[in-house]
Design goal:
546 residues; alpha/beta; TIM Barrel; ten-stranded mixed β-sheet; five-stranded parallel β-sheet
Length: 546
């Protein structure tokens, strides 16, 4: 049976020779999950190869002092127009914290951000739904690295048997291969389906659970305040992005998709990416580079520069490198000079390699750093957990150089920069898309409160101006047809809006239906693979509670 564990309940095991879980998928962008692995780390970067978070410690930088959300006033609502919402609380803007202010949302846009009651004078405020959050109103978080189709699994399903040197090694583990077979079958991937899949309904276009798998990963993010995910799903579908924004597919709700990704090294068409840079059709390229702790992983950065014609055309502001564990001062200096970004996934890096990217070096060089949990096996179950792990790792290994504000910025503003959407996402600002998360906690220490938050403390999540998750008392603000579901999150009553009114492309599925389909499929897969001795049912929960 699955234990109801929480992130820091398992950190104590990370220093042992047998780690709990692994970190990335690994194949072509169109088929995420083959044996090629992701990206890596290197002994030259260190960043604390012998370190790691403090087992059982609190959260650092004041987060330990944050009181449970129950100690703060609950939110309240005055229902009004559903397409106009006024949020009242402590506002985190790019320039400053507004201790008591208002955010007015009209349609999908933020139209007013003012201290006090400054937004009341706006015409759109008349008759709007007013939510007194008694909490912290922040930008929705942006997960820039998540192999979303693997999020049906977690640490109970697979963990690396030892510490590895690079990303080509751990995918050869037999249990990983067995888990990968299940993922390939259920999602009906074009490559790598096992022979037993033919005995199921899942390895066909009609029977594929690709939509359900993607939605499960989106739900994991949503309840933790994440509004956009680089999910590396490979082949896209009209059902993607129906909950959180799947930012790297055309169904991202933004009208255009200018994000390219590569989960393998070398990327399949690097010259084509450079051509797209020149044509303005790619604003962000997010490849996995330097995942490992050896010379092979480190050499990938140089190869990235020499593999194209002209050389180094991928050394560009549009490129955001995922992992970079192998990098040292030379690589980070080049990245900063070229305007390249870094996507940091500390927990999965540490689980696989007992090291992670040297963030103090990258930071000193001036590299913009974003954040992503990678996946649920050895990575974090959501960005809130990844923030806490990053904070813990910083405290233990780097002397607490990263402030709570800097960490939260990695998951919001910097994430928007990494995906080339800093003008629209990742900020509470007039004209920005209304992707907003509201957290309970100490409003006097808002960034610490976010570091301390779990999905239980997430009071509201709004995507494109539509409330999709939050405290049950706030459900009157949610879309009416076809209605939302009740969800118990670690003892807190929440509403969750998953189904839409459209029956096309499984868009009318409820959370209960998605969960039931995935649960049954995992049981079916286990029944057909008894010889390997491994079971991958039950389905990984949306959240592990303390």
């Amino acid at each position: 049976m699955r234990g109801a564990r929480f992130l820091f309940g398992l950190i104590a095991c990370l220093g042992a020779s047998g780690f709990l879980a692994g970190g990335c998928g690994g194949d072509e962008p169109t088929n995420d999950g083959g044996a090629g692995g992701d990206g890596g780390s290197s002994s030259s970067s260190s960043g604390g190869e012998d370190g790691g978070p403090i087992p059982g410690s609190d959260g650092g930088d004041g987060a330990a002092d944050a009181k449970p959300d129950a100690n703060y006033p609950p939110p309240s609502i005055t229902p009004g127009a559903k397409d106009r919402i006024m949020l009242v609380g402590t506002i985190l803007t790019p320039g400053a914290v507004i201790p008591d202010g208002q955010v007015l949302i009209e349609g999908s846009q933020i139209t007013c951000v003012e201290p006090g009651t400054g937004c009341n004078a706006k015409p759109g405020a008349v008759g709007a739904t007013v939510i007194q959050t008694n909490g912290i109103v922040a930008p929705g978080m942006i997960d820039v690295h998540n192999h979303i189709l693997f999020d049906i699994f977690d640490d109970d399903d697979w963990g690396p048997a030892k510490v590895y040197k690079n990303h080509d090694e751990w995918p050869n583990e037999p249990k990983y291969q067995a888990m990968l077979d299940v993922k390939q079958c259920l999602s009906n991937d074009s490559q790598g389906k096992p022979a037993w899949c033919a005995s199921t309904p899942y390895g066909t276009a009609a029977g594929s659970l690709r939509c359900e798998m993607d939605k499960w990963g989106e739900l994991k993010g949503l309840i933790a305040g994440t509004t956009s995910i680089v999910g590396l799903p490979g082949t896209s579908s009209a059902c993607f992005g129906s909950i959180t924004r799947s930012i790297d597919v055309s169904q991202n709700g933004l009208g255009t998709d200018k994000v390219q990704t590569s989960a393998i090294f070398p990327p399949s068409n690097p010259n084509g990416v450079c051509t797209n840079f020149g044509a303005g059709t790619t604003d962000a390229f997010i490849p996995h580079i330097g995942e490992g702790v050896d010379a092979k992983a480190l050499a990938e950065f140089t190869s990235l520069g020499t593999m194209t014609t002209p050389a180094e055309c991928l050394y560009a502001p549009q490129t955001a490198i995922t992992h970079g564990v192998a990098f040292g001062p030379t690589e980070f200096a080049t990245m900063a000079a070229k305007g390249m970004k870094l996507v940091w996934s500390p927990r999965s890096n540490f689980t696989l390699y007992h090291a992670t990217a040297n963030i103090p070096q990258a930071r000193s060089a001036g590299v913009t750093i974003a954040l992503g949990p990678d996946w649920s096996m050895g990575g974090s179950q959501n960005l809130l957990d990844e923030l806490r792990f990053a904070d813990e790792y910083d405290d233990k290994n780097w002397g607490n150089v990263l402030t709570p504000k800097e960490l939260v910025t990695m998951a919001t503003e910097n994430g928007a920069k990494a995906v080339g959407l800093a003008d629209r996402l990742g900020k509470i600002e007039v004209g920005a898309v209304a992707d907003v998360a509201v957290y309970g906690g100490d409003r006097g220490k808002p960034y610490d409160a976010i570091l301390a938050a779990t999905p239980r403390e997430v009071r509201l999540v709004v995507i494109g101006g539509v409330p999709l998750y939050g405290e049950s008392v706030l459900e009157p603000a949610a879309p009416a047809p076809p209605g939302c579901e009740k969800l118990d999150v670690c003892g807190a009553s929440k509403f969750l809006c998953v189904a839409t009114a459209s029956s096309a492309s499984k868009l009318n599925q409820t959370h209960a239906e998605i969960k039931a389909a995935l649960e049954q499929a995992l049981k079916d897969a286990d029944a057909l693979t008894t010889a390997d001795g491994w079971n991958f049912a039950p389905l990984a929960p949306l959240v592990h509670c303390k």
